[in-house]
Structures are given as C-alpha cells and as structure tokens.
Amino acid sequence: MNRNVEPAELRQWLEQGRDTQILDVRKKADFDLDPKMLPGARWLDPAEIAEWSADLSGDATIVVYCVHGHTVSNAVVDHLRARGLNACLIDGGIEAWKKAGGKTA
Fold first, then answer.
1. Which pTM value belongs to this model?
2. How far is CA 34 from CA 27, 29, 62, 75, in A?
3. Which of 2, 65, 79, 100 is least enclosed by beta carbons within 10 angstroms?
4. What percent of the chain has pLDDT over 70?
5. How far apart are CA 86 and CA 33, in angstroms?
C-alpha cells in the first residue's frame, strides 16, 4: 500500500465503502484551534501513540491526518507500520482535504 493517499482517492474509498479507520492525529493545540474532523474520524493524541496504537485493528486500512500531512502524520504512520498495520496518511493533511472540497463535521 502507498504511504500517502490523495484527498480525491480517499473520497472514492469512502464512497465505495472501503473498510477504513480515520484517525485525526493533530497535536492537541492544533485540534483545539479547529476541532472539525473528517466524517467518521476520531481524534487521538499523537503524544500518546504508544498507549492507543495497541488497540487498533489490523483489518481496516488506517488513514491518518494532521494539519498539513508532514511531521506528525509521518511519525504516526511509521509507528503503525512498524506494528504491521496497514496505515497511510492524507497527502497535505486536513488542509488539503478541505481545499479539495472534502467535508468536515
């Protein structure tokens, strides 16, 4: 699986009902500034990844995003892939998702 997914491709996955877990891994300060998330996403503090990553299932594709899809998302994807999980990040983060017309809730 590719490490990055484009916003348009993710939208297709969701429309097709592909089994995905969407994780918002923005730093708490960034999340607090704008708590809107992709539909169905859940926010998990990237500083606590060691605790919450153990509870993730290997069945679904795990899609993570931060603000711009750089440092935070990459570190989370590295950690999840090291655990053998099928993880990728939204190229450009939530900002790219919104610019591409993606909905937030």
1. 0.95
2. 11, 9, 22, 21
3. 2
4. 100
5. 29
